[in-house]
Amino acid sequence: MVHRIPDCGFARSYIIEEDDGLMVIDVGSIGAAQMIDAYCTQILNRPLRDIRIIAHPLSHRSYRRDRHIAQEVFSRDESNASSPGAGIS
After folding, report:
1. What is the reported pLDDT for 89?
2. Could you tell me the pLDDT band of residue 42, with boundaries at 50, 70 and 90?
3. pLDDT in tens, 45-77
4. What is the pLDDT of residue 50?
5. CA atoms within 13 A of residue 43's CA, in its CB half-sphere
6. How far apart are CA 22 and CA 42, in angstroms?
7. pLDDT at residue 81, as a whole number
8. CA 63 to mean position of chain CA atoms
9. CA dist 31 to 7, 13, 61, 72, Å?
10. Residue-wise burial string across 4-20, b where 16 or more C-beta atoms lie within 10 A, e elsewhere
11. How many Å apart are CA 35 and CA 81, to the nearest integer?
12. What is the DSSP annotation of 11-72?
């Protein structure tokens, strides 16, 4: 199932939910990453460690920070502590 994440500012962020994990598309900003965090844990009731792929559809250099933003926000999930980098591709 595809979920559009509301209130992500200029980004249009999505979560694709499957039984074996989640795919996040276009994190884009700290605010978008925080909204994705909240949506995963509060709406989908899934831990952030279920994120298997983070896709960045644009390759412009201003989007290179997306991976770092995602790592910073999503690594705050303490259940992720046992597997560093889990969910970050």
Report:
1. 41
2. very high
3. 999 999 998 887 765 555 555 556 666 666 665
4. 93
5. 12
6. 15
7. 41
8. 14
9. 9, 11, 19, 12
10. ebeebeebebbbeeeee
11. 21
12. ---EEEEETTEEEEE---SHHHHHHHHHIIIIIS---GGGEEEEE-S---GGGTHHHHHHHH
Q: How many CA atoms lie within 13 A of 61 on its CB side?
A: 0
With beta carbons less than 8 A apart as the criterion, state whether 62 and 68 touch.
no
Assign 73 to helix, strand or coil. Answer: helix
Residue 46 backbone dihedrals phi, psi, to 5 degrees? -125, 140
Mean pLDDT over 28-37 rounds to 83
**Phi-psi category of 6—alpha, beta or left, where left has phi over 0 and alpha has psi -120 to 50?**
beta
